[in-house]
Design a protein that fits this description.
Elements (H helix, E strand, L loop, with lengths): L6 H12 L3 E5 L2 H4 L19 H4 L2 H6 L1 H17 L4 H12 L3 E5 L5 H5 L4 E3 L2 E8 L5 E2 L3 H5 L13 E5 L8 H13 L2 E5 L11 H7 L3 E6 L4 H5 L2 E4 L2 H17 L9
Parallel strand pairs: 1-2, 1-7, 2-3, 7-8, 8-9
Antiparallel strand pairs: 4-5, 4-6
Helix pairs in contact: 1-12, 6-12, 9-10
Bound molecules: 2'-O-acetyl adenosine-5-diphosphoribose.
């Protein structure tokens, strides 16, 4: 991808500058440049020999609660050591420039919040929150529990404490999913950043938006089924591309009259 002269950057910025209702769907790729490992690019090191389903499912947790607990504490350490990257910052800036902007994320980290994004829907939960796997009581983790190699016991029922993230085979939080679905149906532009688009129902959202008449912009170093749907596919890292797009939107909105939307 070349610099700002790239016509695809220009076209993406034009679409965003003229959109009335923008929804942005993010995946693990938006946090990759912050040093947070993605899922399907296989984590390196200690955990690469396990299938995520072994580590992010009721079956995996029942089979070896300690292993699952240590994997999440490892990921939580990674998230807490990370900082939002220029892609997160650009999305927060875009929210401030847009008439209406809703960020729907599959990520369980808090990097969008720390970058200043405000309207955020977490489809897959939050890694920094915990609840009892039996009675669903919320649990505030103690530092000693954070360092433990086994999950703590619930103060209410003695069940095992788990992270409040969606595991394979579990339903997404109904209210959050319904809200994201409605926003996708009503938006006139869906910006997709850093997702392989293989996990449903999140991966349905681009189709829902497209069928409702929205334009699609996809940002990813790799082509996917979503890039095939997109009106504009920006191939490259979001930390590099999103700041360029946002800068162009700023120029389009600040100076020149609103151009007629591109054909
Ligand atoms: P994946 O690991 O499946 O895909 C990450 C995507 O990010 C890939 O398409 C990469 O090409 C892309 N990518 C890598 N580096 C990037 C960069 N610098 N900028 C932009 N994109 C980049 O992660 P997700 O699509 O988020 O579910 O996975 C969806 C869900 O599957 C996750 O939320 C998780 C997992 O099981 C739950 O936790 C419930």
């Amino acid at each position: 991808m070349t610099g700002s002269a790239d016509p695809r950057i220009e076209k993406a910025a034009q679409l965003l500058a003229h959109a009335q209702r923008i929804v942005c769907l993010t995946g693990a790729g938006v946090s990759a440049e912050s040093g947070v490992a993605t899922f399907r690019n296989a984590e390196t090191g200690l955990w690469s020999q396990f299938a995520p389903q072994q580590l992010a499912s009721q079956e995996g947790f029942s089979a070896d609660p300690g292993l699952v607990w240590r994997w999440y504490m490892h990921r939580l350490d990674m998230v807490e050591r990370a900082w939002p990257n220029a892609g997160h910052d650009a999305l927060a800036a875009l929210e401030r420039l847009a008439a209406s902007f809703t960020l729907v994320t599959q990520n369980v980290d808090d990097l969008h919040e720390r970058a200043g994004s405000r309207r955020i829907l977490h489809l897959h939960g939050r890694i920094s929150r915990f609840h009892c796997n039996r009675c669903h009581f919320e649990h505030d983790l103690l530092p000693s529990e954070r360092r433990a190699s086994e999950p703590p016991a619930c103060h209410n029922c003695g069940g095992l404490i788990r992270p409040s993230v969606v595991w394979f085979g579990e339903n997404l939080p109904r209210r959050v999913l319904d809200h994201a679905w409605r926003e996708a149906e009503r938006c006139d532009l869906l910006l997709v950043v850093g997702t392989s688009g293989v996990v449903y129902p999140a991966a349905h959202l681009p189709l829902v938006a497209k069928q409702s008449g929205a334009r699609i912009v996809d940002v990813n170093p790799e082509p996917s089924e979503i890039s095939a749907l997109a009106d504009v596919f920006l191939q490259g890292p979001s930390g590099e591309l999103l700041p360029q797009v946002t800068q162009h939107v700023r120029i389009l909105q600040g100076g020149a009259q609103k151009q007629p939307p591109p054909e």
